[in-house]
Each structure stands twice: as structure tokens, then as C-alpha cells.
């Protein structure tokens, strides 16, 4: 039975802990220097990043360090120092996009495996072989590549590991090679500071050069988000992917997304993988759970369909939409209390979403009730009370008071409410 790695995003230390708790085999993260997610990279200092690697290794899991930006000449001395410093922390791999950086990393830290970023756009076995000859251990396939093409790459290079994105944001540009953000706001996408300009609404005009007349093209019912790609969701195709026998790692995008997103996507794809090996795969179940996260509408991308075979990959109406559920609170790491993320009220049943290995326990005391209903765990507060005894009628997002739970539950659990239940 082939081992399949589930690789989740770790935008900061808390999200790293959540990803591991919810079933990830590995996480990817980076310090801001030379990472394609500068905003999330700023969440890590060198000191906290080293601590995160130790935390991950103590749990028998892996951490892949992102060094996947495209450096300018002036940055190369700093890049050398960066590689040296991160290599000393012993991450399990470097994720690299530029050939020159691969060569530099192999020279400075030959003991750290190289994983080739999706930014390198590998679509065929010829390109894959070039990178393999350079010492690359794993190819993170371009978003545009098909499963059949990956089978061909594996056939020609059986010892080369293959990783594919299965969930998360999709870029309007070819594998993220975009200049829109650079032109409009001076934020360079290929160096990690994309402003997501493709998500904005745009008004279209037609200009007559002879007369100088400028006509505004009226907005249709579809809206004006003309470059807004839907989010990738391949949960329904996990069986097909694993049946191929050529994929080594399933990757979830989202280092800048919420802790809830990290937890739910990781738990759902972990369940899909486990169900596959238990011959209990049910695609509808995973789709329903992933619908609870905020998204731009879902697409199955190009892994199982060629780009010219479909025209439903853009969400023209809006940049992002609420999921089916609202996160109401997040449980602390020690599991004793929670912080409000929306509105917490007395005598309302909230669903309690726990990490993969957690086991629910029924309880009924003066603080509240935890019970199981229709296969889901629920929690109801009789008191909204802090550890020092202060009580509230209700709590709103932004309130810094930690609310006691009836009993300790699994750390990093979430309280959520189906949106229609709030009406």
C-alpha cells in the first residue's frame, strides 16, 4: 500500500499546530525572506521557525521550508546566508523554484532534499528529467498538468516523487507568473507580495481612437470579476488520484487563510485518504464539509480535465463568498476555554468540530452541555463565564475574554453554526 503524504499550509505557528492536530503528515512554511507568501512568512522569525521545526519533528511529522521566490542579483548574498541559517535548523526539504537557487542550495546544504515549486511549471518528463539531474527529489506539478501526464513522468522517472495541489486558491495567471499586481500597486507577485488584483471588480470600456469617444460597457448579470479564478477542490477525485499510483503527496494551498480553513481542509482530505484505503470513499461527504469554508466557488481545475474542455473556472460574480457555516469560537491549545470569533449566546447549540484523533465526551454541568446529535458533537452554554468568574449574556467577536468550557476538549477545536440556523 503506497504511503500518501498529506501536506498542509502553516502560515504561522498556530496554524502549523492546527494542521498537525487535524491530520497532516507534513506542513510547509517559511520565514518571509525569499518565500512566495511574504505576509505569512512574517509570522515566523528565525527563532520561532526553528522552534516550529522542532515541534513538528517531535510529533514524527515533516516540515518543508519555502525558498521559492525569484531573487534579484542584489539579493544573492542575503539568500546565501538565509539558506545557511535555515539549513542549520534541519527542515525536511527546501521548496525552490529557480534553477540558480537549486544549484546554490545544493552547494550550501547538500543534506537538505530539494522539492521543485509549482512555479517552475513542470508539465512533461523532459523538464522533470532536467531538474532530477540537478538533484531535485520531488516535483510539485504545475497546476495545468493532467494526471495522465503525471503518469508519463512517473513512468520515465520512477524514483522522482510527485506532489499535486488538491485544494485552495487558483491563480488567473499561468502558474502564478503574474505582473498585474506589480503594475497596479508595485507589489511583486513572484517575490511573494501579490495584492490579489485579479480578485477585484473591473469596469470595462471601449475606446474609439478616431473620435476619442469612450464607452462604458454595461455590467451583465455575471458581474465584473473577470479574472477571479474559482478555488481548486479535488476532494471528489482523491480516489482517481490515488488509483493512479503515481502521486506521493497531496497538497493544500492556503498559508494566508484562516485557522478554521486549515483545520477543516486538512481533516477532510485526511478522511478522504483514510476512506479510500478502507474502501469507503464517499465524494459527497467531503464536498459538503469543504463547503463550510469561505470560498470563491469550486472547480476541479485541470488535473482531470484539459483547460479547453471547460469554461467554468472563473467566478464572475464576486471575489469570495461565505461558506455554509460561521465559525463562532476557537478553542485554546490546552482545550479549557475558547475565544469568540463571531457571536456566542446562551442556550444555543453549536457544533463542536474537533481534530482528527479527538474523542468526544458527553457532559452536563452548570457551565453547559456537550452531547452528540445525528453524528455530530454539540455544545450549549448555560453560562458564559471566564476563569475568574465574570459572566456575560453574550460575547461578540473581538472580545478578549476567554470563556470556560463545560470540560476540557481537544485543543484547537472550533465551534460553528450553520448559517441558516442564525436567521
From TrEMBL:
| InterPro entries, A to Z | Peptidase_U32 (IPR001539), RNA/ubiquinone_mod_enzymes (IPR051454)
Which species does this protein come from?
Answer: Sulfurospirillum deleyianum (strain ATCC 51133 / DSM 6946 / 5175)
Q: Which Pfam families match?
A: Peptidase_U32
PANTHER family tied to this protein = PEPTIDASE U32 FAMILY, TRNA HYDROXYLATION PROTEIN P
Q: Which PROSITE patterns match?
A: PEPTIDASE_U32
Q: Which GO terms describe its molecular function?
A: peptidase activity
Claim: Transcription regulation is one of the keywords in the record: no
Query: From what superkingdom does this record's organism come?
Result: Bacteria
UniProt lists the family membership as follows: Belongs to the peptidase U32 family.
Task: Choose any GO biological process term that the UniProt entry carries and state it.
Answer: proteolysis
Keywords for the protein's UniProt record, in alphabetical order: Hydrolase, Protease
Q: What is this protein called?
A: Peptidase U32
Claim: Protease is one of the keywords in the record? yes
Amino acid at each position: 500500500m503506497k504511503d500518501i503524504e498529506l501536506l498542509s499550509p502553516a502560515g504561522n505557528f498556530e496554524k502549523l499546530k492546527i494542521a498537525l492536530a487535524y491530520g497532516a503528515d507534513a506542513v510547509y512554511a517559511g520565514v518571509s525572506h525569499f518565500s512566495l507568501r511574504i505576509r505569512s512568512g512574517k509570522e515566523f522569525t528565525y527563532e520561532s521557525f526553528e522552534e516550529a521545526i522542532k515541534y513538528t519533528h517531535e510529533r514524527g511529522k515533516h516540515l518543508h521550508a519555502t525558498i521559492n521566490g525569484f531573487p534579484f542579483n542584489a539579493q544573492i548574498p542575503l539568500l546565501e546566508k538565509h539558506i545557511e541559517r535555515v539549513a542549520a535548523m534541519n527542515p525536511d526539504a527546501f521548496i525552490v523554484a529557480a534553477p540558480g537557487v537549486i544549484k546554490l542550495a545544493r552547494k550550501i546544504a547538500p543534506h537538505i532534499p530539494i522539492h521543485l515549486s509549482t512555479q517552475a511549471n513542470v508539465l512533461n518528463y523532459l523538464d522533470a528529467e532536467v531538474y532530477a539531474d540537478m538533484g531535485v527529489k520531488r516535483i510539485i506539478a504545475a497546476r495545468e498538468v493532467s494526471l495522465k501526464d503525471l503518469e508519463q513522468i512517473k513512468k520515465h522517472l520512477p524514483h522522482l516523487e510527485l506532489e499535486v495541489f488538491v485544494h485552495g486558491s487558483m491563480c488567473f495567471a499561468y502558474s502564478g507568473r503574474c505582473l498585474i499586481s506589480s503594475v497596479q500597486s508595485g507589489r511583486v507577485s513572484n517575490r511573494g507580495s501579490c495584492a490579489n488584483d485579479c480578485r477585484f471588480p473591473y469596469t470595462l470600456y471601449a475606446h474609439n481612437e478616431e473620435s476619442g469617444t469612450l464607452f462604458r460597457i454595461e455590467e451583465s448579470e455575471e458581474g465584473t470579476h473577470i479574472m477571479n479564478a474559482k478555488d481548486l477542490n479535488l476532494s471528489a477525485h482523491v480516489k482517481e488520484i490515488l488509483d493512479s499510483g503515481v502521486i506521493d503527496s497531496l497538497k493544500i494551498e492556503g498559508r494566508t487563510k484562516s485557522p478554521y480553513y486549515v483545520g477543516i481542509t486538512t481533516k477532510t482530505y485526511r478522511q478522504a485518504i483514510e476512506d479510500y484505503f478502507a474502501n469507503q470513499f464517499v465524494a459527497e461527504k467531503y464536498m459538503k464539509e469543504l463547503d463550510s469554508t469561505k470560498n470563491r466557488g469550486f472547480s476541479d481545475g485541470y488535473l482531470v480535465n484539459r483547460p479547453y474542455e471547460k469554461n467554468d473556472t472563473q467566478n464572475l460574480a464576486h471575489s469570495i463568498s461565505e461558506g455554509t457555516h460561521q465559525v463562532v469560537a476557537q478553542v485554546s491549545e490546552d482545550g479549557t476555554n475558547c475565544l469568540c470569533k463571531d457571536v456566542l449566546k446562551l442556550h444555543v447549540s453549536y457544533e463542536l468540530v474537533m481534530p482528527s484523533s479527538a474523542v468526544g465526551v458527553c457532559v452536563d454541568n452548570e457551565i453547559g452541555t456537550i452531547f452528540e446529535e445525528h453524528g455530530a458533537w454539540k455544545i450549549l452554554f448555560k453560562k458564559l463565564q471566564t476563569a475568574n468568574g465574570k459572566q456575560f449574556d453574550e460575547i461578540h467577536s473581538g472580545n478578549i475574554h476567554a470563556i470556560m468550557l463545560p470540560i476540557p476538549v481537544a485543543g484547537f477545536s472550533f465551534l460553528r453554526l450553520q448559517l441558516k440556523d442564525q436567521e
